[in-house]
Every structure is written in C-alpha cells, then in structure tokens.
Input
Amino acid sequence: MTGAETLPWDEQRALDDASYRTQLSYLFERSAFYRDKLGAAGVDSAAAAGGLDEIAQLPLTDKHELRATHTSDNPVGTHLCATRSEIVRIYSTSGTTGSPSYVPLTAGDLDNWVTGSARSYAASGIAPGQRIVSTYNAGPFVAGAALAAFERIGLCHIPIGTGNTERLLAAIQLLRPDAAVLTPSYAAYLVEAAAERRIDLRHSSVERVLVAGEPGGAEPGLRAQLEEGWGARVTEAMGIGDIGVSLWGECEEQDGMHLGARGFVHAEVIDPQTGASLELEDGVTGELVLTHLRHRAAPLLRFRTRDHVVIRTSPCSCGRTGPRVRCLGRTDDMLIVRGVNVFPSAVREVVSGFAPAVSGHILVKPRADGVKQEPPLPVSVELAEGASADATLAEAIRDRLRSVLVVQTRVELVPWGSLHRSEYKSRLVEH
Ligand SMILES: [Zn+2]
Output
C-alpha cells in the first residue's frame, strides 16, 4: 500500500480542493463545453465557482449532453481540452445508441489511470511476483488500461481474453496463477463450466478472484456462490469509462471498495430523482457523481455515473482512509413498481437466499416499456440442478421479495439451464 492511501481524509480533502480549483481554471481556459454550461448557470469564472465545499451548487453533467456536442469535426465533443499532439490514446465506450463515445487521454491522464487502477487491484491483497490471469479483451475499451496496472503492481500477467473458456481453464491448470480477474457473470459461468468438465476449480491455484465490469460481485448470495465454487476470496473493483478504469477496489476486509483513484477523482452522491447532493454518511445510498481533479484531455465535472451505490465511512482495518462504496446496480436498469425503486440485482440477491433450491440465475420480465411498471412484476427464477418446480417455493420467494424489497412479483420457476449464461456481462432484465 502506498502512503497516499493512508493519508487522513481531511488532508486528502485539502489536497483535492487545491487540485479542483486548478482544474476549474483549466476548464474555463480550455473547455468550450464547461464555459458554456457554467456560464449558463451564472458562473463565469473559476473564482466564482469556489472550491469543493461549493461543488454541489454547480450543474451536473449527463452523458447525453456530451453526446449532443459530437460533430464530424469534433467527434469527442466540446469538452475536449487537449490538442491533437497532446493525446496519446483514444478509447471508446460502447454506446447503447450505436455510435461510440471517444475517451481521449494525455500521457499524464493515462499514467494517473494506471496508478489509480493499480491501487484498486492491489487492495485485493495480490502481491508482486504473483501470477494473474485476465479475461478482458483489451480491444477498444478502457478495460485495456487496467491491464497496464498489473505490470505496475509487479504481477506476472497472463492475458486470455473473453469467451475462451477452454484456454482459460487450461491456463489455470498448467500455469497455476494466484488470481483471476473477470466479470462476476463469467466467474459464475466458469464454476459450472469446470464442474461439467470435472475440473476441480475449488482446489486450483487461484486464491483470489477479482471481479469487475458489472455490479453484483458484492451481493452476498453471488459472492458466497463464487467463493465456494472457486475456493477463493472474492473482491471487486469498479470504474466508469468516461472518468477512469478501476477507480475503486475492495480490500481483504470485503466491506466496500476504496477509492484507488484518490487525488485524481472527487466523489459525491446524489438523489437520482431530484439531483440533490447527499452527505457522504455511513449507509447513505444514491447515484455516484464523479469529478476529475487532474485531468487534461477531456475532463468532466459532476458527471452522473448511473451507478447506484451505498457509502461506508466506518474506518477500515486495512488502514486505507476515505469513504468506500458498494454498487447496488445501474440506475439505467432500475424499474419503478408503483412508486418503489427496484434494482434487478437486488431481486437476484433476495432470490439467491433460497440456494441450494435455486441456481441464482433470474430474469425480470417487465410487461410495459420504460421504467414505470404495474405490479405484479414477472420474475423468472431458475431452479438448481436436479430440483423440480414446487408451488410453495415460488410463494416463499414472492413473499420474501415483497417483505424485503416492498415489491409485488409473479414468480415463475424455470428448469435448471433455461436462463442464459453470460461469458461477459449478465442481462437481468428482458427488454
Ligand atoms: Zn480496507
């Protein structure tokens, strides 16, 4: 662990406040997007914007606003600040609307990304000299930058890529890595794939499973299933393409992810409905909002991540300071059933409590388009291998969903193997 990670949080905050004020001056000087946006909000200089104590008075930035400024002359958007010669890398994020968003980085930005990512992954307890097998395709996506973090930590990195299960299982058996990094969906898929091939994953060399790329790695049911299946400790990491790769990483205490990108990124939590800023108190839940503090290529201010998180502020015995987060789901996946917010990942978490009768795979099947749904919400729940449908089980699941999540559902039990398994990221909602 680096000394920077144990700095008392008020000292970090003072450093961040100075970085933020410099970042604001840079935005007013170079960012057409933020000059316009802040000017429209009546803030016409960095001095007028103040410091981190005043940040909640500034407008939020939504991904759609950035996208609206894309042109063929400026495909990045008007938040681009760096000149062509300053940019050393351009990643893309997978846009749901078809056209990608580009994420340019200067050499300094890229170095900060790797530093933050290395801290986040090192928090898992993996140590220099150990071997890690990775399943991310570098490709066009920001995950490629995380791979450089493994070198920075001093690991031996064995890249396998996505969707190559035979090669991955062979590498685990022959090269004996200490850790594997993958999505929680793929980690779950591999437990089944190894069992089918009579490979004893639980007694393999892998002692740490580092999950990232989608929410779910900290759901108690799924985590228990992965720890059991792999015979390994599971910790998670999280980033957001437009801000940085693997910004957050969980330590061996497994009680939320520390901000590995501390000093580079400032975190806030808001009420996703009203946009109101919430105090970073223990147990508060809301949408994570992130601000670059030392970014040059295309810095963002109060960017809405669409990640719905719960905050932990109790001291962590690992010694890392600052608030921790656990991701509960994406606000994009959220449904509102008669006024109640329902995250499909929360449905899965409740259903997983019925293991070993269920497999842990679910599919929420909204009857209407859009976010708002009338009860009962249909949910398919997959039975465990060899289990048969049983009306009392369906009723028990329905009752527990109603008492825990305050949502009325119609639970349909489906046979083992009938819901789709993903070698990358799971879809928990049928669209
Ligand atoms: Zn910790």
